[in-house]
């Protein structure tokens, strides 16, 4: 029986990747203040989308009018999480990769929020 060299190489490469992924530094979460002066300090679209996705529990609390212990809130969060990748793709296709103005950031945030937690009806 031949020794499976290719399999050993692929498995070794996968293990090295997992080890590398576990040891690299994680970026700090972005605070909303990061988006205050975009003209002088532009931000990448992916950073803005990460921030919007982290706001999902708050968005669901506003949309449902109930706290995080309720069933409606939990359902809203889980449905928003399932839409995350589709919403990211939609926003990435529609907006530039670098956000350098408050207007573009507002449009990105509103588009992403509406995609993650769609609301219908009249605005109060």
Structure keywords:
124 residues; mainly alpha; two-stranded antiparallel ribbon; 5 helices; extended
How would you describe what is shown here?
- This protein is mostly helical and 124 residues long.
- It is 62% helix and 3% strand.
- A two-stranded antiparallel ribbon has the order 1-2.
- It starts with a helix and ends in an 8-residue tail after the last helix.
Structural class: mainly alpha
Q: Average pLDDT, to the nearest integer?
A: 88
How many beta-strand elements? 2
- Global outline: extended
| End-to-end CA span | 73 Å
Fraction of residues in H or I helices: 55-70%
The side-by-side strand order for the widest beta sheet comes to 1-2
Strand residue content: under 5%
The biggest beta sheet is recorded as: 2 strands, antiparallel
Query: What oligomeric state do the depicted chains represent?
Result: single chain
Radius of gyration: 20 Å
- Low-confidence spans: pLDDT under 50, at least 5 residues? none
How many H/I helical runs? Answer: 5
Order of helices and strands: HEHHHEH
Task: Please specify the SSE layout and strand pairing.
Layout: H1 5-23, E1 43-44, H2 45-54, H3 56-64, H4 71-94, E2 98-99, H5 102-116
Antiparallel strand pairs: 1-2
Summed up:
The protein is built from five helices and two strands, in the order H-E-H-H-H-E-H. By secondary structure, the protein is mainly alpha-helical.
